[in-house]
Give the backbone structure.
Amino acid sequence: MEIEFQNVGKKYESGQEALAQVSFHLQQGEMAFLTGHSGAGKSTLLKLMMMIERQSSGRIIVDGTDLLAMGKSLIPLHRRRIGVVFQNHQLLFDRSVFDNVALPLQVTGADSAQIGKRVRAALDKVGLLGKEKYNPMALSGGEQQRVGIARAVVNKPQLLLADEPTGNLDPKLSAEIMNLFQEFNHVGTTVLVASHDLALIARMRHRVLTLNQGRIVNDGGFN
Ligand SMILES: Nc1ncnc2c1ncn2[C@@H]1O[C@H](COP(=O)(O)OP(=O)(O)OP(=O)(O)O)[C@@H](O)[C@H]1O
Ligand SMILES: [Mg+2]
């Protein structure tokens, strides 16, 4: 997926200006990080991409389509093309690992054989194939996070967004999670990861967009 922000601003109803004049272009197949202080606007930017929030000014163009021109009926379809990973992974503890990962497929009306195949392929990618029958409660924090990633990619999204995906994890697990994102990127998924972890970001050697008070103050690579 290709994304272009043109002078995007977001002012919440409270009057809080979360983003101002944000412009960047994320190419199809690119991987980038989004960083900045707490309250800088990172989550807001991801929410605009998913159309959870709407911008107050400027344009957001996704694969050539202006999101402002996208009718309400097309929003679910748009969201289905995006996989999202949250810091608190938002797993459901009243069902198995398998069922958690299967959720995004169930709403698409896929048949159960297809669902089984896809879910196992996603769990295999994150190294959790042996734990499909477990309750997520019985998994470590890092394993739970990987279930969240499997769920985000099970639909083969064209864009993978992650919001502080390594917040609670130790450095080794954080590096593993980042490597997973990189693997998805290598097979063609566009990836944008919001993170505070500057040391980890530097090691990944990708493009880094830095927000400060809602404005992009740096857009560059590490070398
Ligand atoms: N729903 C909302 N209503 C009003 N203000 C909001 C809302 N969501 C976020 N904000 C404000 O917008 C600004 C940007 O918030 P945002 O959550 O995008 O920051 P962030 O960079 O993700 O921060 P963090 O690193 O703490 O997650 C903050 O000042 C925040 O208080
Ligand atoms: Mg945030």
Summary: The pocket of adenosine-5'-triphosphate (ligand 1) is lined by residues 12, 14, 16, 18, 36, 38-44 (CB under 6 Å). The chain has a mean pLDDT of 93. The longest strand covers residues 17-26. DSSP finds seven helices and ten strands in the chain.
